[in-house]
Amino acid sequence: MINLSHELAANVITPRNRDSFKGTYGHVLIVGGNANLGGAVIMNAQAAVQSGAGLVTVATDLTNKTAIHARLPEVMVVDYQSDLTQTIKKADVVLVGSGLGEEIGVLNQVLAHIQPKQTLIIDGSALTMMAEQNLSLPNAKVVLTPHQMEWQRFGEVTIADQAREDANWEALINFKTEPILVLKSSATQVYLKDDMYQLTVGGPYQATGGMGDTLAGMVAGFAAQFQPLGPAVLAAVYCHSAIAEDLSKAAYVTLPSTIAAAIPAYMQRLAQESISKDPVDTKQEE
Ligand SMILES: NC(=O)C1=CN([C@@H]2O[C@H](COP(=O)(O)OP(=O)(O)OC[C@H]3O[C@@H](n4cnc5c(N)ncnc54)[C@H](OP(=O)(O)O)[C@@H]3O)[C@@H](O)[C@H]2O)[C@@H](O)CC1
Ligand SMILES: Nc1ncnc2c1ncn2[C@@H]1O[C@H](COP(=O)(O)OP(=O)(O)O)[C@@H](O)[C@H]1O
Ligand SMILES: [Mg+2]
């Protein structure tokens, strides 16, 4: 077991190269938000944009279009019933499931068209539908972001057994494509390659609807711009709860949108730390 530390995140978030453009920082496609759960994709997208993804597209029920545009002018919107296949092709990272409800046709399209070189983050309703329909993981770089009940459904590990690290590893071995597992709870754990990383920041001020949608959007935004994937996921999980912990000093609850708004300043702090640690830069300043 490894503590998911500030240092791990600071090693990922370094200053940007001057010679770069939006294409450098990846294209995130968010697929979710049925007619009743559009807020979930708004929270996904807000977190992905604030994390610094170069481009963000939301494929959703079209009734959500005006609300998304009104809240997030940075984001492009397409109809998930008609425009999904060609939109998936253009993405580096696809996040599917937040607020998707029972739209199994949409989920099947994503699973059928995702490519091995793409990152696929599977959240919320997608995990529940995959469990119900007994669907397999596709050949892609997969990140699973279940809460405890979703992991009980999809990983078939009871919530009581999830306290045992070996029970979660046993479930993961059954998946052929070695997914990264972000097992969310009041003590979130990340299972990555052969190690389990324990989150030690965050708290009950985060227990509000949309908190996981925000985390999934951050994982997508970080995965789009920081390689390799494993450390990017760890950094996103750490920053999400570290920001909440910072905000909780002056706030009883830390709302998802407030966390998302605080992401760029927090990332800048980490990037500045990496400059001050760099011996070459220190020399130049002398
Ligand atoms: N604004 C929006 O659009 C929002 C849209 N959302 C979207 O809604 C979709 C459904 O997601 P969901 O998580 O709300 O429902 P579901 O999958 O049925 O799980 C709940 C069941 O699991 C149980 N449970 C046990 N342990 C748990 C744990 N640690 N954490 C959480 N639950 C735990 C829990 O127990 P109970 O509370 O009943 O004691 C209950 O029985 C999904 O796509 C999501 O993205 C939401 O993000 C909200 C904001
Ligand atoms: N008591 C708590 N302490 C720390 N983190 C919490 C606590 N309660 C919830 N969280 C975090 O909030 C998020 C909830 O995710 P999820 O249930 O998927 O939310 P939603 O689907 O409503 O967006 C997870 O990241 C979880 O770790
Ligand atoms: Mg969720």
UniProtKB/TrEMBL annotation:
Is Iron a UniProt keyword of this protein?
no
Q: How far does the signal peptide extend, from start to end residue?
A: none
The catalytic activity, as recorded, is: (6S)-NADHX + ADP = AMP + phosphate + NADH + H(+); (6S)-NADPHX + ADP = AMP + phosphate + NADPH + H(+)
Q: Please list the cofactors this protein needs.
A: Mg(2+)
Q: What EC identifiers does the entry list?
A: 4.2.1.136
MF terms per GO, please? ADP-dependent NAD(P)H-hydrate dehydratase activity; NAD(P)HX epimerase activity
Alphabetically ordered keywords of this record: ATP-binding, Isomerase, Lyase, NAD, NADP, Nucleotide-binding
| One matching Pfam family | Carb_kinase
Instruction: Provide the residue positions that the database annotates as binding AMP.
Output: K184, S185, S186, A187, T188, G212
Q: Which domain of life is it from?
A: Bacteria
Residues annotated as domain YjeF C-terminal: 5-270
Record bears the keyword NAD = yes
SUPFAM superfamilies per the UniProt record, alphabetical: Ribokinase-like
Q: Which family does it belong to?
A: Belongs to the NnrD/CARKD family.
Q: Please describe what this protein does.
A: Catalyzes the dehydration of the S-form of NAD(P)HX at the expense of ADP, which is converted to AMP. Together with NAD(P)HX epimerase, which catalyzes the epimerization of the S- and R-forms, the enzyme allows the repair of both epimers of NAD(P)HX, a damaged form of NAD(P)H that is a result of enzymatic or heat-dependent hydration.
Name of this protein: ADP-dependent (S)-NAD(P)H-hydrate dehydratase
Originating species: Fructobacillus fructosus
Taxonomy of the source species: Bacteria, Bacillati, Bacillota, Bacilli, Lactobacillales
Name of the gene encoding the protein in the UniProt record: nnrD
